[in-house]
Design goal:
The protein is 76% helix and 0% strand. It is built from nine helices and no strands. It is mostly helical.
């Protein structure tokens, strides 16, 4: 339903799922965390950032208690809390959450996996928002390196990384570097007619 744009219907289904899971599994089961997480995604899509933050914080609390502080799902929860905070303008809090997510991903999953690349990208976007273009460029370049290694040079996620780097270079006045990124992006547009560069943070 969410993919079809029926956010109200999706929210209703998530609420029903949460009620069942609470009855069957209790309040501190990973499935309850998943239900809160999914509800948060729907609220985020509906623009209810306060509600989304509440749901993702509940999910995070469960993951910390049940799965531990160094589990990938806990890292994902930190990231989702960070996304909600960024949407609300709390970039300091968002940066803290995304850095916690990155630390977990690096320790548990390793430095060359897509989840780690997403963490670098999200940190880069927050840094852009706070005006730290040098830090943002470093993060987006790390994301690009992983995407090229894991997905190859012609994957849409690699194209998104080029897009992020292009925007930072433009903000820094590096028109030559930005033009080089634009040339790479055009390659994706020709290869994938429906390719659109993503300029939003990614959830897990």
């Amino acid at each position: 339903m969410l993919a079809m744009g029926d956010n109200i219907g999706a929210l209703e289904m998530c609420s029903k799922c949460l009620v069942i899971n609470l009855k069957v599994f209790g309040e501190e089961h990973p499935h309850i965390g998943d239900s809160y997480n999914n509800t948060g995604f729907v609220m985020f899509a509906m623009g209810d950032n306060i509600g989304a933050l509440e749901m993702h914080n509940k999910c995070l609390a469960i993951h910390l208690k049940v799965l531990g502080k160094e589990h990938p799902h806990t890292g994902d929860s930190y990231s989702n809390v960070g996304l909600a905070m960024m949407a609300m303008g709390d970039n300091v809090g968002a940066l803290e959450m995304h850095n916690k997510c990155l630390a977990i991903h690096l320790k548990v999953l390793g430095k060359d996996l897509p989840h780690t690349a997403t963490s670098y990208s999200n940190i880069g976007l927050v840094m852009e928002d706070i005006g730290d273009n040098i830090g943002a460029l470093e993060m987006h370049n790390k994301c690009l390196a992983i995407c090229e290694k894991v997905f190859g040079k012609d994957h849409p996620d690699t194209g998104d990384s080029y897009s992020n780097i292009e925007c930072v270079m433009e903000a820094m006045g590096d028109n030559v570097g930005a033009l080089e990124c634009t040339t790479n992006i055009l390659r994706f547009v020709r290869r994938y007619p429906f390719f659109q560069c993503s300029r939003t943070s990614s959830n897990h």
